[in-house]
Amino acid sequence: MIQIRNLIHDYLRRDEEGNVEGSHRAIDHVNLDVHPGEFIAILGHNGSGKSTLAKHINALLYPTEGTVVVDGMNTADEQNLWKIRQEAGMVFQNPDNQIIGQVVEEDVGFGPENMGVPTEEIWERVNESLRIVEIEHLRKKSPNRLSGGQKQRVSIAGVIAMHPKCIILDEPTAMLDPSGRKEVIRAARALNKVEDITIILITHYMEEAIYADRVFVMDEGRIAMQGTPREVFSDVDRMKELRLDVPQVTLLADELRRKGLDLPAGILTADELADALGLKEETDVRKQA
Amino acid sequence: MIEVKDVCYTYEAGTAMAVNAIDHITTTIPDGQFIGLIGHTGSGKSTFVQMLNGLIKCSSGQILYNGEDINAENYNRRQLRSHVGLVFQYPEHQLFETDILTDVMFGPKNLGLSEEECRSRAEQALYAVGFKERHFTQSPFDLSGGQKRRAAIAGVLAMKPEVLILDEPTAGLDPMGRDSILDLVSELNRTRNITIVLVSHSMEDVARYVDRIMVMNDGHFILDGPPTDIFVQVDKLEEVGLSAPEITYVLRKLKARGLDIDTNALTYEEAAEEILRHRSQLEALRTRE
Amino acid sequence: MKEITLGQYYQTDSVLHRLDPRVKLIGTFCYIISLFIVNSWPGYVAAGIFLAVMILLSHVPFSYIVRGMKAIAFILTVTVLFNLFMTPGEPLVSFWKLTVTREGLSFAVKMAVRLVFLIIGSSLMTLTTTPTQLTNAMEDLMKPLKKLHVPVHEIAMMMSIALRFIPILMEETDKIQKAQMARGADFESKSIIQRVKSMVPILVPLFISAFRRANDLAMAMEARCYHGGEGRTRMKPLIYQRRDRIAYGVLAAFFCLCLSLRLLKF
Lengths: 289, 289, 266
Prior knowledge:
The structure holds three protein chains of three kinds.
Chain A: E1 2-14, E2 20-34, E3 39-43, H1 50-57, E4 65-70, E5 73-74, H2 81-87, E6 88-91, H3 104-108, H4 110-115, H5 119-132, H6 148-160, E7 166-170, H7 178-194, E8 198-203, H8 206-209, E9 214-219, E10 222-227, H9 229-234, H10 236-241, H11 248-258, H12 270-276, H13 282-288
Parallel strand pairs in A: 3-8, 3-9, 6-7, 7-8
Antiparallel strand pairs in A: 1-2, 1-4, 4-5, 9-10
Helix pairs in contact in A: 5-6, 6-7
Chain B: E1 2-11, E2 19-29, E3 34-38, H1 45-52, E4 60-65, E5 68-69, H2 77-83, E6 84-87, H3 100-110, H4 115-128, H5 145-157, E7 163-167, H6 175-192, E8 195-200, H7 203-207, E9 212-217, E10 220-225, H8 227-231, H9 234-239, H10 246-256, H11 268-276, H12 279-288
Chain C: H1 15-18, H2 21-37, H3 41-58, H4 62-69, H5 73-86, E1 91-95, E2 98-101, H6 102-128, H7 131-141, H8 152-182, H9 192-223, H10 242-263
Helix pairs in contact in C: 2-6, 2-10, 3-6, 3-10, 5-6, 7-8, 8-9
């Protein structure tokens, strides 16, 4: 679906006359492959280059060196521009700054309108998109009256209506409260599972990365770690070094292991910990009681 | 000390749309306490904290600061705001001067202090939040997200408040930024004895630091007490759309599966200690297998 | 700021809501002109009846419309008083240095009626039409100007984005003001220079925020394949229905009535 080869991106600093003063390397030799239908999470602290990377996939930024190929189309080729933006949709961090319409359904229709989709089909697409993210009841509302989580679901619906093969979510939950965060992640997972859309989730909340098929951790423009969530989170020391969170239960298991308990690495849930500790199944405990 | 006596606040009073944002609250905030004020979006917590420094006038009831009614006709509310400092959500959006030192001096200048006094207060405040002298002349807009926020907090600290209220100070920050802000706030409480009210919707953030948690829902407090007392009441928290810290759920799971432990631990280190106290029980389980 | 309900879209279902926004735009325009055509009591009565019928058809509660009028009550009063005292003619009453003349009285009342009708009439349009419909209508009605290289689509898009962001920026202004007040800023100072100076800590962050939002929005629009008006389709194209043609008929009849009242000097 997406092939990124030796990607380098330099941001240029210019002085007042517009002459190049210096540059800052935001992406440094990144290689990354995403397969159709995958759920990918990219973790990293602010300034690690993860958002810059995301904007390359949608052709909002172009490589300084290296190539980005989306569904067989090179992003550097201008002819592919609109096709790529349609196939790889993007949801941004601030829900207020990406909703254009003044009524939910009109915003969802904005993408198809730009693509020149016939009116009747726009309505079909809008209805379908609203249904997928479960906001049909909000279709006539003004975006200003919605909660953060609802606004982000409107943004997602707006992307779905463009019938993308892949959706990049660039820190979609950073400005939301816990319930809004759950709403958005649930929607993203459903898209992946039910609609079979490739998802690339960029976040700094590790608990959102747990559901991913593969996790990439970025640091200073490079990919510092990669693997399944279990593989990545089990390296507690490295995660701490990169100043990222690890699930509390993984930390707890790690601490217990340090204190001499014989536990396997990469425990991600309370049940896994209970199993590893040799505790009985919950139903057995109830039967006894 | 702040005393809140039977306070109400009604939006759009006198119309059909009247909403009781704050509904008969009575409470006391003693000096030196570190309070976590928790509630989901729209629970009234932001309204409540704005009443404490007189930005919002209560519809009925009284708020006393050190025994004086802050809504009395001749009470100096501008003076009050220097004693009860309030840091809004995304405070970096209020920076406006050309360098951070001048920006931080804005508060002291408004208090009518001399230029030298303002400068020395601003410098102290910037040191307190971790800036070095070489940063002072930097433009606030060249700083990173976490730095901007710390500069904004310094802007309130320079007024030498006795009470510091922070409305979701970690919103939108990555784990590194979040930890550094929370550590900073905790240090201000410990070393300068500043009373802290930390507004948040995340239990995780506050569990580690605070003396007291106040849980707000529908404009009044439904729970109020030390963290260990609050997290026991998981059902009540979930009823209002909140949750206990992740570690509480892990420990409850282990308990449900037959490990006879106390579920009061607030951090994973404490949890590990608690589990290790039952080492004999765990080993008995294993040998039986 | 929340009190201003003047002309804010009122969501309900009515004939007026369903009417093509172009009809409503042209209709309001005609109504305003007709208010200045008529200059006699029968004319005002006709205009009043027309407006009353429209209000009934709109299903917007009358009290809601009146509440919106409060915002402009001050301007209205000043205008009326000005006309009342400043029109020369046959004196009716006089006190202190002021004299009310017969002409003044009649002129002031007419002016008040005209203004009230004008404001209710135009707010009725915005009450029953969403800003999007309105910008769409304007875009369509201005289409002939495209030939003169007027960027019609861009103007409409700008208006529609402005309308979407006004409430957000108003809220933001309020937040910034409060935050600066928390840092001891004083916005109640008397002298004008002080006041202007005190606006700086609000305006600078507000502009920065507006630019940041504009930047974000531009990127979000590009990411959703926005590339100007060319090749764009509409989700809600404007197509005249039977009711719109009838509405045009009614409008023409009313306009003729007003015109004949004036010409026949009723």
